[in-house]
Design brief:
- The complex is a heterodimer of chains A (351) and B (265).
- With 351 residues, chain A is mainly alpha-helical.
- Chain A has one domain: ABC transporter involved in vitamin B12 uptake, BtuC (Orthogonal Bundle).
- Chain A has 13 helices and two strands.
- Chain A has a two-stranded antiparallel ribbon.
- Chain B has one domain: P-loop containing nucleotide triphosphate hydrolases (Rossmann fold).
- In chain B, the strands form two sheets. A six-stranded mixed beta sheet of chain B has the order 6-7-8-3-9-10, sandwiched between helices. A four-stranded antiparallel beta sheet of chain B has the order 2-1-4-5, with helices on one face.
- In chain B, helix 3 runs parallel beside helix 5 and helix 5 packs parallel to helix 6.
- The model of chain B has no long low-confidence stretch (mean pLDDT 91).
- The chains are: A mainly alpha (351), B alpha/beta (265).
- At the A-B interface, helix 8 and helix 9 of A face helix 2 and helix 3 of B.
Chain lengths: 351, 265
């Protein structure tokens, strides 16, 4: 009798706990990442860099996981976004205005991939490689040169740097003064990423957003309930490449230059972020999954900075590291599975 | 209501492996009729459904639904008026989404999808009522991922999704064949009840002669891409399984002999 009375309370308690497990996991993770950073000499700049790149992870999540479309054209849209932003800023456009411009440029890259795939029935992977290759020339043309420095120009970060320096010096003294610019990056990129994610999460819960989420899971069912599934591929790829280009625009303003080579291998970094986020945070719904991609990218960047400083690696070694992370994420479940089967067969064989 | 005129479908046209899946189908289904379709494997039953639903476009012939020609309309447009339940229980629902999300997708069938919230509180109430009426214990599991449901539950959910917005036509492609006998009986009973209550026009493919005779108002028998015979009304009501098998044997051998003879000539 008592257990019957208590059961609903217990159930409610566990339900509440379940709803919060994502936040709990996030807290534990933040604790370890913070610990790692304070014990090693990893600069908090790694967090800013992670936030600048975070939308690549979100974009890759949309194409690979939501749409189930292996889209490599992100390797083209990320530098195009950076190129558009750098060229516009160098040409005198207010830095804030370059963000929507980059978003649109990236969306056009995604549109091209989707149309090639749909019109000519070319496999997604190949269609996106074609676009990625062609996009390189566009990036170079937009920039006009292989490298645009953004040193003495106003970026979206510039207006906040002096006040932040003042604030930090006034509150914490001179010791943290050198971190002021990193704090501005974290603040501004954090706000941009948060706005994008809130809007994106809301969109995923609209009628179109739900149709988009369904189309990558079961296209037969999606057509059977009257959804134009090709339209969903177009929409999804425009969205994911637009986000990657937006990340490109943020990254050039963080680095202080745009380089035509900067997109190479970014897709694998995005995948690494998605997989790290999935493994560590185990998202249960679309909103959590989007945030997991963001935090996956931050964790990747922090871990990368730590590994690089510990092993004395060069900044250009990032590609091997991201390749290994993705390989690991794909291989480990497979190895574990085989191990389990092997153990079971041994258990059966034993007398 | 539904009218097919001289519909032909060929696969791999012009190659050695050419298949003439439908060879001149003429079929008329009146409003609120419940048609059962029987025939051996490869008779063209599934192709008939695909050509009606728009998954396959005919090489020849015309299809009209409610006076509207739909012969070449894309599948997603026809879905506004045609509900479908597939043989495979995982085909008709979307794993990875919840029961209410699946129902919300079906609720917007034939309507413009916009930036309104996909599921409102009123929608959830509506879903709960409809699920309750099915009596499958799903009304308390609106937020459960569809992947966790049994085959029977998924098929019942697909049936609800297909009929949520009163389609002009409901296509059932052996939708109980993959279920255990208990679940199959439950889903079949549900099908008959929903069809009667909502006054739906239904075409159901079945492998079971027993089902074909017991359920519905009209029987269509197919063989090698053609309709062997169609019977309804009083003649249909007096039909027994034995009659059906006898007629099937007689007509099929006549048909096969005929095609053999044309082949030799």
């Amino acid at each position: 009798m008592t257990s019957n009375n208590r059961a609903p309370h217990a159930r409610r308690y566990f339900a509440a706990l379940k709803a919060h497990t994502f936040l709990v996991r996030l807290g534990v993770l933040a604790f370890f990442v913070g610990g790692l950073m304070s014990l090693s000499n990893v600069n908090i700049g790694a967090i800013g860099q992670g936030l600048a790149l975070a939308l690549v992870g979100v974009g890759v999540y949309i194409s690979f996981r939501v749409l189930n479309f292996p889209d490599l054209s992100v390797d083209g849209s990320f530098p195009i976004g950076g190129a558009v932003a750098a060229a516009l800023i160098a040409g005198g456009t207010p830095a804030e205005g370059t963000l929507p411009a980059a978003l649109i440029a990236g969306a056009l890259v995604g549109l091209t991939t989707a149309l090639i795939h749909i019109t000519f029935k070319i496999e997604g992977l190949l269609a996106s490689i074609i676009v990625m290759t062609g996009a390189y020339t566009f990036t170079l043309r937009i920039m006009g040169t292989s490298n645009i420095p953004l040193l003495n120009v106003r970026t979206i970060l510039t207006p906040y740097e002096a006040p932040m320096r003042e604030f930090v010096t006034a509150t914490f003294g001179d010791a943290l003064r050198r971190q002021a610019n990193n704090l501005v990056e974290i603040l501004i990129f954090g706000v941009v990423v948060a706005i994008v994610l809130v809007v994106l999460n809301a969109f995923m819960h609209t009628e179109i957003g739900l149709a988009l989420r369904a189309s990558g899971k079961n296209s037969q069912m999606v057509r059977a309930v009257g959804i134009h599934d090709r339209m969903m591929i177009i929409l999804g790829l425009m969205l994911s490449n637009g986000l990657a280009a937006l990340a490109g625009a943020l990254t050039v303003q963080q680095l202080g230059f745009a380089d035509v080579q900067m997109g190479v291998g970014i897709i694998v970094r995005g995948l690494a972020a998605v997989m790290i986020g999935e493994v560590l945070l185990r998202p249960k719904n679309i909103g959590q999954a989007l945030w997991s991609a963001v935090f996956g990218m931050i964790i990747f960047e922090v871990a990368r900075a730590w590994v690089f400083s510990a092993l004395n690696l060069n900044a250009t070694d990032v590609r091997l590291v991201s390749a290994l992370v993705v390989l690991l994420a794909l291989a480990v479940p497979n190895v574990l599975n085989r191990l389990r089967l092997w153990q079971r067969s041994r258990a059966h064989a034993a007398p | 209501m539904l009218h097919l005129e001289n519909v032909h479908v060929n696969f791999n046209t012009g190659s050695a492996s050419e298949v003439r899946a439908l060879r001149g189908i003429d079929l008329t289904v009146a409003s609120t009729e419940f048609v059962t379709v029987i025939g051996a494997n490869g008779a063209g039953k599934s192709t008939l459904f695909n050509v009606i639903a728009g998954t396959v476009t005919p090489d020849n012939g015309q299809i009209t639904l409610d006076e509207q020609t739909i012969t070449h309309a894309p599948e997603y447009q026809r879905a506004a008026h045609i509900g479908r339940v597939f043989q495979n229980p995982t085909s008709g629902t979307c794993a990875g989404l919840t029961i209410s999300e699946n129902l919300a997708l079906a609720l917007r069938r034939g309507k413009r999808r916009g930036l309104r919230p996909a599921i409102t509180r009123a929608d959830r109430e509506h879903f709960r009522e409809r699920l309750q009426a099915m009596n499958m214990g799903l009304e308390s599991r609106l937020d459960t991922d569809v992947a966790f449901l049994s085959g029977g539950q998924r098929q019942a959910l697909t049936l609800l999704m297909a009929t949520l917005t009163q389609p002009k036509l409901l296509l059932l492609d052996e939708h109980t064949a993959a279920l255990d006998p208990n679940a199959a009986a439950q889903v079949l009973e549900l099908t008959v009840r929903i069809a009667r209550e909502a006054q739906l026009t239904v075409i159901m493919i079945t492998h079971s002669m027993q089902q074909a005779v017991e359920i519905g108002t009209c029987v269509v028998m197919m063989n090698r891409g053609k309709i062997l015979f169609q019977t309804s009304g009083q003649e249909r009501d007096q039909l027994t399984v034995e009659d059906l098998i006898a007629r099937f044997r007689a007509l099929r051998s006549a048909d096969d002999e005929l095609s053999d003879r044309t082949l030799l000539a």
